[in-house]
Amino acid sequence: MNAPESPRLSRREAIQWVFAASASVALMHQQTFAEDAVVVTAKPYGTDPLLNHDYKPGELWPLTLSAEQRRTVTALCDLIIPADDRSPAASAVGVPDFIDEWISAPYPIQQTDRVVVLDGLKWLEAECQKRFSKGFADLSLEQQTQVADDIAWLPKVKPEHKAGAQFFSVFRNLTSSGFYTTPAGLKDIGFVGNVALTKFPDAPKEVLEKLGLV
Amino acid sequence: MPFVTSSKTKPQYDVIIVGSGAGGGMSAYVLALSGVKVLMLEAGRNYDPVKEPAMFQTPAQAPLRAAATPDKHFGFHDATVDGGWTNPGEPYMTRRSDKPADTYHEAKDWVAFGSKQEWIWWRPRMLGGRTNHWGRIALRMGPYDFKPKSRDGLGLDWPLNYEDLAPYYDKVESLIGVWGTNEGLENTPDSPNNSLLPAPRPRVPEMLIKKQAAKLGIPVIPSHMAITSRKINGQRVAKLLHPDDPAAQKLSADATNARQACFWATPCGRGCSIKANYQSTTVHLPPALASGNLDIVTDAMVREVSVDENGKATGVYYVDKTTKQDVHVQGRIVILAASGCESARILLNSKSARFPYGLANSSGNVGRYLMDTVGAGLTGQIPALENLPAFNDEGAGGSMHSYVPWWLYKDQLAGKLGFARGYHIEIGTGRQMPGAASMSLIDDLSQGAYGKRYKEEARRYYGSTIHLAGRGEMIPNDNSYCEVDPDKKDAWGIPVLRFKFKWSEHEIKQAAHMHATFKELIETMGGKVLGTPQSNGNKAIYPGGGIIHEVGTTCMGADPKATVLNSHCQAWDVKNLFVTDGGPFVSNADKNPTLSIMALAWRTCDYVMAEMKKGNI
């Protein structure tokens, strides 16, 4: 079905937009990075976890990122999703915590992403030191943009930036997953729902007119 | 009467039902309300359908933003307990397309699409079975669907007609609550006896699809969903269903009146605390339990049907998973409703001197004619749907409000299609709550945006995709079956199933036709296909079992030598043994099987009651 396939979709095939591909994140990159293949040994949550509970990153398995790595992650998250007049930056709504939770999870997809993210962070720091003699978090927006532009779009990168671009793609999807599932992200995007209604509301006239459905 | 432990069961029951899903639940409802003593055995744990569902939880409240994992295959908040494509302690074996043809391998995959397994078997282990997660799509089979061989010479005919089952479709629709409309379309039956609830308005993208599809002659009509679009009048329905039985009327009405109308939010697959959608645990089991005639033992893994020296069933053996003890319970009648393959497994494992090939298997066809539904899908991005203002288009349960019934009967009859049998199209649209990786499309659509542009692109594209999923008929064939593996046993010591499965050319060509249609439809809407439309159906089709419509392993028919069950789903070989899951199906029409499973189960149980009263069983 959809290019990125998720188990959820494989049954309902609901809506690419809604559920698409948790698996896709891992499937998008070929295993370019080999280092740091640390095997996470924490316990999975099992086939019958408590569903009605507000889980926090770190609650189910220990987190991974050092303070230094977290600084880089925070800066990169906010380069990808910065604050604007409609919503806050990714780091303001806990996205770095989510990324840490993700790469620390004892499941195959997450462990694959773990290698990509940890090695990618290492690559990013090395690249920034090489170019500017500073870590990514300490660069100006202009300098960060210069690095990011080289790795932002996998199909068009130079061969030497391919690994960086694969990292960026995974990282961007994680940042986006983290952000657009928060109340701020849902509001930003225009999701209205998840509230009990006595009647399914009529479609707004403005929408119907725009689509030529009146 | 109640949930009991193994030590508290009665010495003898009138009927033992194995399984608590659509077939088992329906059977328990009919029989317990008719006054007979019933024991239901469920292999999974007990489940509270009111307290347990995480209806309004957002992905951000779950681990990993609720992404699917090997522990929760349909995502964290899906209602499924201890189930999925793999179950702890319960292996199965299957052939694989990437391994030598004659070898079987333990099933490991937890994602269906792209699996190299010939069969991928989804099992829940919880009270209510698959009715907890199912899509609530409730379509009647049509008159053609019962006589497919007579129409095109392929497969098998059912030993009954649409008219035989129609009264039971009326009853089931009235009881469980199904919304829909009567459109008068070919082989897409109306519900003439006022058994449907009103359909909600289509979602906005569905309206757009309907308008554009009309140009291609493709009909888009309201879906039929087992969801209460308004509150059901329990008394009115109970009088219709149980006309001469005030006690049953009261039980049924009380249970129905405890159900609320849908509140147009939250995915049905998480469960429904307000009981607005049909699931066995909120519709069938409460009145059956309230009757005082139903006992339920959960964590009871049935392994064998016991028989006496005359070849009559006397009860079942099960492994009590809580004590690991082997337990025998006695019943005058045994009804298997454990799912097509699981019921076949129980029969095949019920070997004795008298039945050396398993019970009810003198035809040799237990496990044969295994079918699933043909599945293939494509996603499209529709520019017209970009940048719409925010509005609530969530609707019921994440489920479709509109669908496309099979529409090419005349072209097919004229020999223009190159394959037999049809499919319907299920429509998934847009403005639902995002989950993990929902925005991964922006990478491609924006060609690598980040920063403020990423946020703008997200606003632009959110809600602008549609997903079209084909669900088509499979014709039974000799190459698709399950049998007991000679070596492998599960954690309870019960021999497991192994699967062989092959699509025929009809299904493969149908899947390619689906992709071609979806591409045409998306492009007619001015949209762009995301992913690759496949002209080779092998690359479009889901693996067997991927749509979770396993039917046909204990097929019914008119000939005792060629079929397992007669037209009342009664075993030819063992007259007090019945099957009320998908096993009796003789074909697998594109109409999702659950409604037909329930209608058949009700009809079977009416027959059971009549035969009991006559003293025949």
Count of individual beta strands of chain B: 19
Alpha-beta classification of chain A: mainly alpha
Shape of chain A: globular
Distance between the termini of chain B: 25 Å
As an assembly, this protein is heterodimer
- Estimate what percentage of residues of chain A fall within beta strands: under 5%
Order of helices and strands of chain A: HHHHHHHHHH
Q: Report the helical percentage of chain B.
A: 10-25%
Q: Structurally, how many domains make up the residues of chain A?
A: 2
Structure description:
The complex is a heterodimer of chains A (214) and B (617). With 214 residues, chain A is mainly alpha-helical. Helix content of chain A is 50%, strand content 0%. Chain A folds into 2 domains: 28 residues, no CATH class; 180 residues, no CATH class. Chain A starts with 6 loop residues before the first helix and ends with a helix. The N terminus of chain A is likely disordered. Chain B has 617 residues and is α/β, with parallel strands linked by helices. In chain B, helix 1 runs parallel beside helix 15, helix 4 packs across helix 15 and helix 6 packs antiparallel against helix 7. Chain B starts with 12 loop residues before the first strand and ends with a helix. At the A-B interface, helix 1, helix 2, helix 3, helix 5 and helix 6 of A face helix 5, strand 12, strand 14, helix 12 and helix 13 of B.
